[in-house]
Structure formats: C-alpha cells, structure tokens
Design a protein that fits this description.
Elements lengths: L1 H18 L12 E4 L4 H4 L2 E3 L5 E3 L3 H6 L3 E4 L4 H17 L13 H8 L12 H10 L4 H10 L2 H5 L3 H8 L13 H5 L8 H12 L3 H10 L3 H17 L4 H14 L6 H20 L1 H11 L6 H10 L3 E3 L11 E4 L6 E4 L10 H5 L1
Parallel strand pairs: 5-7
Antiparallel strand pairs: 1-4, 2-3, 6-7
C-alpha cells in the first residue's frame, strides 16, 4: 500500500508539473488590436468574451507566428486636454489653431522645458523627469525623444543616464567605439538608448540585414538564447575584420543596454504630445491649464494645477451661476489682454449633470 500511494503521489506531482504555467482563466488585453483581413476566423481560434468583444485565443507571440500584426492602441487623456485647449482658443480668439502645424523648434517652448516648470506636461512632469530635463537641457525635438527614452525603468536601473549626461555636458568623451558605429552612436552621446541602435550595430558589425539583426536583438532579452548569440557574433565580426578589442567592447555595450533599449519610434510618438503640451503651456497657459483641469490627464491634484496657473499669472475666476459651465472655461479679463480660468460647476460637491445643464 505504501508503494502504491507513493507511485500515485509521484504521478500526481508529474501531472501537476505538466499543468504548471498553462492558462487557467481568460482575460482580455486592455489595448491590443490584431490587424487582419476577413480570413482571420479561418487562421486563428476566436471567442466572444463576457463583454461581447471578439477575442483571438493566441498570445502576442502566437499571433506573430501566423504572420499577423498586433498593435497596442493606448488612450491618452492628454490628447483630450489638448483638444479642449484648442477649442477654447477657437472660442475666445475666433480662429482655428492647427496643432499639427506648429513649429517644432520654438525657442520659448524649449526655454520653458529647460526651466523645469513642466508640471502638467505630457511625460515630463514627474519629479524625476523635472530633474532630468534640468540637467539635460533639451533644445530640439530629437532631444525630447532621447529624454523620454532615457527615463524608463531599464535605463534608470542600469545607470544609462549618468554617462549620457556626462558626455552631453562635456564632462567625458562619448563612447563611439569604432568609426563604423559613429553615426549610430553619436546621436545619443555614445550611449545605446534605442532598439533601433542595437539593430543597426548588429547589422553593421555582422554584415547582415536589419530584419535579421532585429531577430538577433530579440534573443538578447533571453539569457539562455543570448548565450548562443555572442560566440556567433564574435566569430562573424572577426571574419569581417574587426579587432577583438572592438568586438568585446561592442559585446559589453550590448549586454548592458540591449534588453533595456526603448523603441525610438514609440518615443517619437510620445514626444509629439509632449512638445505640443509644452507649446500650449508656453503660448496659451490659461487655455492649456483649463484643458488639464477639465480632463485631469496628469499625476497632480487640481489644487496644484491651480497654483501653477497663479504662478503663470493666470487669473482664477470664481464659480458663477451665469458664467460657469460644466467644464473649465477661459475668459478674457478686463485688465489688458490676459485670460482667466472660470471654475467649473462640475467641482460643486454632489452636483448632477441635469443640475449643471439647468
């Protein structure tokens, strides 16, 4: 009996080991969308979830294996705040502002960013980011892309920021390693920040296509698979005439930064609303802060945003049964051409939509 119980226990444990890690429940990814033509039901298992949405029963890796593209579509409340600002500019000034056509090299906008007075701005309003932009002193749109990419858990944890700032401010020379890599590394002061840089380094050293290099870059995130990459990479580089010192230095950079890199295309998409929010705060502070107060896109309470408005010389106008709306509105005040922000009825405790409409 003892032997029989033992064998059953061993069998149960082995069965449990095979089940370990398998999905137990069904959950919907909050923002993933699969792109396909009408043949999707013939190519992937699908179901209807409890909310009535069609779902593919594959994870992101399986989706790519069958040749489909997965996109993460994010909802960014800053876009609503910007839209509210533009609508208020149109209402108060009688002109339509096309935010997509504002100059991306406005000196006053970058002066505001460099001053670290970035509360309310997309991506660069946290205490850590205010410290970084103060030390970095971004002066171009490209700098904003780098800043957003540097302020990520990986780069911060691996201390990528310090060597970048030292090179940026002239305290040390950029680490450019080899003449064939100058163009790749110069844009970020010799510090590998972007996935695209890792791809280009591998492609340049190994003499392969960017598509092949991207496949190898993905291996670097996996300790087991990356162990096979480095011997191949060293052999390939030496065959192509690179010295062992250069190859070892490149390997050191790849080991340190490859898994922490950030996609430049992603950062550029984030940098655009960052710059647009900074431009609006610089040139239309009342309209921009009215948008922030209405849509609450950031990390700070409204009382702090109201204080920011005061510091920028924007008047705060009290609640008015005749002039207040459900949102924060901009009004031209009597003194000069300045604008003030009229507080919203929505902030009255317990008020309902019907009461506001009435």
């Amino acid at each position: 009996n003892i032997n029989l119980d033992t064998s059953r226990a061993v069998m149960a444990i082995k069965l449990a080991e095979r089940l370990d890690g398998l999905p137990k429940v069904i959950a919907m990814h909050p923002c993933a969308v699969i792109l396909s033509n009408a043949s999707l039901p013939d190519r992937a298992p699908m179901l209807i979830n409890a909310s009535g949405y069609k779902m593919v029963e594959f994870d992101k890796d399986d989706v790519e294996e069958i040749g489909l593209l997965k996109l993460d579509i994010l909802g960014v409340r800053m876009q609503s705040a910007i839209a509210h600002s533009i609508a208020e500019i149109g209402r108060t000034e009688g002109r339509e502002l096309n935010i997509e056509k504002i100059p991306t090299d406005d000196p006053d906008t970058f002066k505001l960013i460099q001053s670290t007075k970035t509360i309310g701005l997309f991506q660069i309003e946290s205490p850590g980011q205010r410290e970084l932009v103060g030390k970095f002193q971004p002066s171009s749109f490209e700098d904003l892309i780098i800043d957003i990419s540097l302020f990520r858990p990986g780069p911060v944890k691996s201390d990528m920021i310090t060597p970048f700032l030292n090179a940026r401010q002239g305290w040390s020379a950029p680490r450019l390693i080899h003449s064939s890599l100058y163009e790749i590394l110069a844009e970020t002061e010799g510090v590998v920040v972007f996935h695209e840089q890792v791809i280009r380094i591998i492609a340049t050293i190994a003499g392969i296509s960017l598509a092949e290099a991207e496949s190898y870059r993905r291996l670097l995130n996996n300790p087991e698979e990356s162990a096979n990459f480095y011997p191949w990479f060293i052999e390939r580089a030496i065959e192509r005439g690179y010295s062992i010192n250069v190859v070892e230095e490149v390997n050191e950079v790849l080991r340190a930064f490859a898994s922490f890199g950030f996609c430049k295309a992603h950062a550029a998409a984030f940098a655009l609303p960052t710059y647009q929010s900074a431009w609006l705060k610089t040139h239309y502070p009342a309209h921009f802060i009215a948008g922030l107060l209405t849509h609450d896109p950031g990390m700070y309470p409204k009382r702090l945003l109201l204080d920011e408005a005061r510091q920028m010389g924007v008047a705060l106008l009290p609640l008015s049964i005749n002039k207040s709306g459900s949102d924060y509105l901009v009004e031209q005040i009597q003194i000069g051409d300045n604008y003030g922000i009229r507080l919203a009825l929505a902030d009255v405790a317990g008020i309902t939509k019907d009461e506001m409409d009435e």
